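Instructor's aside before we start: the two examples that follow are unrelated to each other. I chose them only because their records fit on one page, so don't look for a connection. First example below.
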Amino acid sequence: MRFTNLIPAALAVLLAVPAYAQTAWEEYTNREDHFTVNFPGEPAVETIAYKTAKGTSLPGHVYSAKDARGGEYRVTVINYATAPAEGATAVEEAAKTLRTKGQIKYDGVEHQNNMRSQRISVVLPNGRFLLTETLMDRANHLFIMEADTAPNVPPPAQFQASLQVLDDNGIALRYKNPDSEERVR
């Protein structure tokens, strides 16, 4: 009789482990690329060369991690310091590329910490859902966030809303309004 009472308890423990694995998100900070974001574990880092619309090759990094639900989360950071004149069109260029990935469900201008950003939601040809946010900070860094999830699983809010752009001292940037250089302290 006692053995049969243990079966439901054992099943509850076994089923709780995958649920915990889905929520094991951590804050990841990278001072070199000036950001912090929540990822489902330690991200893999890839160094890339990013081509602008004018053909300029800029250094960048792609930070990516996968969660237990099959979602993939990426932050691409491109350093425009050597091409500041091209920074004015960086967000629109990146958004144009993201729009080609599938059927657009939402495309709008947003303000991430009062920095102008472009948010685009796309249904990919394979049926997966891609939520993106693209923004340029005042120090010439382009940030491209991508959450690629199954169609029946919304991207976790802890990724979408977690991006903080950092200054050289590691302090999160937030401006009083989108067109201001004046920071909120």
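Example two begins here.
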Amino acid sequence: MTQRLGVVGFPIEHSISPAIQQAALDALGIDARYERWRIAPAELRAWVESLRGPDVLGANVTVPHKEAVVPYLDELSPTARSIGAVNTIVHRDGRLLGANTDVEGFARSLLEAGFDPHGADVVLLGAGGAARAVAVALLGAGVRRLVLFNRGLARAEALAALLGDQPGAGQTTVEAYALDAPALDAHLAQCTLLVNTTSVGLHPGDSLLSVERVPAGALVVDIIYNPPETALLAAARARGARTLNGLPMLVHQAALAFQLWTGREAPLGVMFAAARAALP
């Protein structure tokens, strides 16, 4: 019986996860098909129940469902439980396990880029499920200061409170602000790492802020991977800053998810090649 996997989101048409995962499945001779599932928030609970079918191995979860999916699962991994966000669902004998491979995926992407976040001053844009994963990864890496900016202050403050309960929180100063707070310019001028975890940038020209205050030696990361260079990254590159898009994080988290579903080591080189080939 051909097994099924897929990625769920709303929208989902931009996702290249099917190309990455199908290439890995084919490379290892696993009889499975990886799909895109466009599921509106109102349909999420029914969709989760459909994953209990005997032909389903699991799913990836992306915007806007990473937090909303949590109550519908039977069990959470320690990482997913601590941050309240899931990006991978594993089907095991009728039970659904929620995991989060974004945390380790982001950490691996920074190390691969040659950036050691230990002691860094970080500005993090966004406070959703992806921001939670990135923040936990940075906390675990021992950043010196983590400053959260979000359009809604309450959500940024909620994320800051959640981070206070994470391992390593005592070594990191965490602050939360609304995106329009006057403190933004000063923190941008001091940062060594700027990370955008919002969906702003999916469309040409979209950007949350100007990078004029970001030091030229900083690393600017946008976890969006399609388009490969968002307006934020283009502006940062023009300023002389180092840039990193979301493709390495995507592939590394995908490889970790693949291992959870199949119990086999992911063919990382195959997955990176497929990801690059799938981009415009």
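Residues 247-262 form the longest helix (16 residues).
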